[in-house]
Amino acid sequence: MRIGRFDVRIFSDGVFRLDGGAMFGIVPKVLWERQKPADERNRVTMDMNCLLIRDADHIIVVETGAGPKLTDRQKKIFGIEDPPRLLDELKRLGVRPDEVTLVVNTHLHFDHSGGNTYRDDGRIVPTFPRATYVFQRREWEDAIAPNERTRGSYLSDDYAPLEAIGKLELVDESVEILPGIRLDRVQGHTRGTQTVRVTDRDATLFFSSDFMPDRHHLPLPWISGFDLFPLDTLAAKKLILRRAIDERWVVGFTHDLPRLGRISEAEGKFRFDEAES
Question: pTM of the predicted model, to two decimals?
Answer without folding.
Answer: 0.94
